[in-house]
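Sample pair:
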Amino acid sequence: MRLLQRNSTGQFSLTEDLNGDGIPQYAILSHTWGADIEEVTFEDIINGTGEDKPGYEKIQFCEEQARQDGLLYFWIDTCCIDKRSDAEISRSINSMFRWYRNATRCYVYLSDVSIPPVDINNEGNPRAWESDFRKSRWFTRGWTLQELLAPFSVEFFSRERKHLSDKSSLGQLICEITNIPHSALQGDPLSQFSFQERSRWIQHRRTKREEDIAYSLLGIFDVYILPIYGEGTANALARLKDEFDKMQKCIQELHLTDPRDDKRRIEDTKGSLLEDSYRWILENSHFQQWRSAQQSRLLWIRGDPGKGKTMLLCGIISELKRFIASSDLLSYFFYQATDSRINNATAMLRGLIYMLVDQQPSLVSHVRKKYDQRGKTLFEDANAWVALSEIFTSILQDPGLNTTYLIIDALDECVADLPKLLDFIVRKSSESPRVKWIVSSRNWPDIGERLMNAGQNLSLELNVESISAAVSIFIRHKVLELAQRKKYNNRIRDAVLDHLSSNANGTFLWVALVCQDLESIPKLAILARLNDFPPGLDALYERMMKQIHNSNYTNLCNRILASIAIVYRPVTLPELASLIDVLEDMSDDVESLQEIIGFCGSFLTVRKDAIYFVHQSAKDYLLAKAFNEIFPSGEKGTHYVIFLRSLEVMSRTLRRDIYSLNAPGISIDQVKEPEPDPLAAARYSCLYWVDHLIDCYTRGNTTNNLECSGSVCSFLRKSYLYWLEALSLMKSLPDGIVMIMKLENFHADENPDLRAFIHDAKRFALYSRPVIEQAPLQSYCSALVFSPEKSIVRDTFENCIPSWIQRKPRVQEHWSAALQTLEGHSSSVSSVAFSPDGKQVVSGSSSSSSSSSLFNVWWATRSVAATTPPEGYKDVERLYYIRLGVVSGSGDKTVRLWDAATGALQQTLDGHSNWVSSVAFSPDGKQVVSGSNNTVRLWDAATGAVQQTLEGHSASVTSLAFSSDGNLLPTLRVSNHWVVEGKANILWLPPDYRSTCEAFSDKTIVLGHSSGRLSFLQFRQGLKLVV
């Protein structure tokens, strides 16, 4: 951007084109334009002219006001953009919102709001200008919407250049004028408002050029599109919506976890966040140096287990939210070793990027560069770390990125690619001066080797006094809570307070665990039992294990602890019940399950039905010092039990259309999880049964399960499609594909039949993934119908194809083959149509060897010789066959009627302004309908007169047809790669079967393909359900 300044001669001049860190603080003007000749232009500033224009006063006003606010630079849209350059106009339109958002001050000059002279009528009314303010033209213009919303500071001035008030003080009044929510005016992220709501904010505003209604919303939606003046409002808004939808889909698929939800869960699980217990760090010299010194960009906080590192970082995050600028970005991530979703290096990148693009959606452009090519696999395949680290790097280098704070907790709980992650943090923290990092971990030597000299490091063990004081505050808080709840007298309260203070040794977790145990001890027994709680975490864990050993639930608690210790993510109570046979009947009895979890000492905690270790150190203790007690058959034995239980629960639970959706084309976005959820107990098993199989492998354990009659083969042959449907409903189909690949690479080669099935299952899932992800019940429709004839999955589940699909297309024999259904064209089939009796099909194609076009006439069951249309007629786009006539549409913008027998031209219908993309005859042959661009015309076939013009499509009309009575569109049609009946999607067309043209006869469809082949589908009358 270029900025204005007053130079040493008193004249106004422009800076060079600035970007990124080179942009100084500046003010920005918002105003309504006068006539073009009244405004000072870019050329005027360059040439030193324009002082006689009315708009010059606005420049003077903005400079004077900026100078009063201590700013040397300012920006005004009339003269800071070189409008001779289309490229600069495009860049400016897409950058405008950011320029207003980043301004230190925004001055709104209201040329139609005047402060009336003080008289007896308004002497006591400091807002006598309010009536004019409500009616100001400024609130009716399109571009001023973003100028109101983007800046944090917006100040309003009258025609006399007098300060009226600011956005914050006038919030309620502006809400009434604009109908914009107060929260949006006060700077809440616009991403939290729906597309429809944001679109309503501009409904009653106007722009000089009609397309600017759409372009002025680019910043509101944080999308980039190239301005195309002349395209019209509808097309501009359609492109805006399309780009917004693509951005939203990318962000949704990037999402793995929302760290904001993780922070709330951690605070709820570990107890409320006490400000007094973390405020000490704000005064710490290391923290203050990190915060204030530009060269200090990385702070490593380290300490032993239980010292409160995670809650300390939660407190720092809360404090940063309060004091950083509204335009600054804050992104964070909490590692958790027991959750496979968030215990690896790639997960951290996804979490940080997700929060950054959620706060500043324009940053998603860095993700889109790769995502648009690779889709969701960008975030999931073996190269995800490489791709995401490149994306993250480009985000940090974005010139539009403001000061950014990145917080990463518990690096020691990153179980995959930790060295790679540490090197990445060290490298990136030294590269960008606008980005500051805080990371935390235990005192691990391998972490210390990389981080010790990379920045500031703050050891909790070296801040004993601060930690002890913080723990004392925590103890007092917990004891007062206990005393109030349990009605302790002063003697008991003080005794508990004294014992905790004497034995805590600066460990928050020890205090929390003891207080949790004290909850279950009767008040009269407290004094006698206090000494049962030894100092130190390991000693306390040992006491908890002894309690379990002496209880009536020793075996059950050990099985629960063993299962929770090795699952790949925290399981819910119903999932746990499904994995442990003695709990099976309790899967819907949440209270009883919670009570049983309570028998496991204080090792476990339940949050929103999910079971977690109270701390990573609890799991570490069990695996290191209680291993033989909880794993009497070894860790592999527990994996084996979970694997078998997973197959059992899936075989018992999964079925076709488990959510009773019925409609075959219902989208995953339309699916509402039923209550109760029939998949609740099986979700974990669906996602991780293969991992447990692999981790339990010993030849004796698993060989039987991999035989023809074994549990794996039986499950796949009975429930494979049900499993894919379930994965789709869980929005986890990519995870299922990864599992199939793992299974294929496992020891299935010991059973050739199983290996063949798994290989075919992989090909089936990969080929059908797009539709099964989008519409779960298409697992039984499109996925089967378009699979190769000799696909093992198709053969196994043939009876799952709905009976209403009466005629299936001819498909390839094997996955690697490509057999065409009907052949004869040498180039793309551009048009296809049925004869009225449904027995013949006419298809059109451009010749690959010349500029001529070809007509082929086919029987519905076999092809016959082609006929060539009259000489001179080229580029056939759409055809329709009616008795002895053919109607065609062409790139020359005409519709032509032909005699099918002789090839003679009978009629030329001229009137479309663009190429004709679709044509059709009425059943009686008296009318012709044609589609061109977004317009449909109805013609009299005899006279060639236009009978009706229909408009309203937002894109080109590619398919037209009459109903059998000649009045309505047919019930069957193709739209957006779906076969549609009425308004319902019924069958998805894979890429190999996408049509360039279609024709319909009764319940039969013929599809013309770019390869030159035709495909037929026939459906039965009646409801289309999956049952």
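The first strand starts at residue 4 and ends at 6.
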